[in-house]
Amino acid sequence: MQGNTDTVRGLLAEAPRGDLRREAEILLGHLLGRDRGWLLAHDDEPVPPETAAAFRALHARRMAGEPVAYLTGRRGFWTLELCVTPDVLIPRPETERLVEQALACIPEDARWDVADLGTGSGAIALALASERPACRIVATDANPAALAVARTNAERHGIRNVAFLEGEWWQPLQGRHFHLVVSNPPYVADDDPHLARGDVRFEPRHALAAGEQGLDDLKVIISGAPAHLHPGGMLLLEHGYDQGEAVRRLLREAGFRDVETWQDLAGHERVSGGLWG
Ligand code: GLN
């Protein structure tokens, strides 16, 4: 029977070379509870039949387009491994730019009140909370299923300084004021062809698309912010690569000062912010 036993190498060879092979390594590593280094060093290792079958099923789903993060239920963000489900957007590297910029503003021992609007998996709120344990962070989301994922992530990482509230944008925060508000809202234009391609097809559309120009939710967040920021408080927003000018204009029109934009690693304008009062 030895001849029929699948090995690590044999299973991986079923995936086409290139990105799909690398992704197959992630899928098999996930099922075996091993990292890529282990797989490559143990490629003769026999794989139990039920694991081989599970791998083939996941690999087939990947070949049909499903994102690797939804197949493994995991995605790394900042220093945290986060649970993800199709209820939440898969955290992206460009969003780490927003975290970086927020951390540059928050002094190490600050006891700030911080809000993350539309938290999804909790990525931004939990990254900030882990780096600034003295801050009190509120993370909101309109979708209870997303909040359940975010809460799971907080528990998994033992993060206690984030409170989760259900509701659209400012609605659950009435009467509350913050030193810093961050958000990665939906910002893709409704008719953007990018929504019909690749991994984003499997992500929640309401977390991606925001009206004709993709600015609908950014407008709601910016116009509501002055009522929720302490004097000198800051609003920091992720936006599309081509929305920097529009977002700066919206911020200035709403009365923000020191309005600035920062680029992501790809050199695109990605994060804009300003100070209130
Ligand atoms: N950057 C994401 C994308 O283009 C969009 C994320 C968002 O809308 N907040 O897929």
UniProtKB/TrEMBL annotation:
Q: Which GO terms describe its biological process?
A: methylation
Binding-site list for S-adenosyl-L-methionine: G118, T119, G120, S121, G122, D141, W169, N184
* Main EC class the enzyme belongs to: transferase
Q: Could you tell me one molecular function GO term of this UniProt entry?
A: nucleic acid binding
PROSITE patterns in the record, alphabetically? N6_MTASE
Q: Which domain of life is it from?
A: Bacteria
Task: Tell me which UniProt keywords the record has, alphabetically.
Answer: Methyltransferase, S-adenosyl-L-methionine, Transferase
- Reactions this protein catalyses: L-glutaminyl-[peptide chain release factor] + S-adenosyl-L-methionine = N(5)-methyl-L-glutaminyl-[peptide chain release factor] + S-adenosyl-L-homocysteine + H(+)
Q: Does the keyword RNA-binding apply?
A: no
Q: What is its EC number?
A: 2.1.1.297
- Briefly, what is this protein's role? Methylates the class 1 translation termination release factors RF1/PrfA and RF2/PrfB on the glutamine residue of the universally conserved GGQ motif.
Q: What family does the entry list? A: Belongs to the protein N5-glutamine methyltransferase family. PrmC subfamily.
Q: What is this protein called?
A: Release factor glutamine methyltransferase
Species assigned in the record: Thioalkalivibrio denitrificans
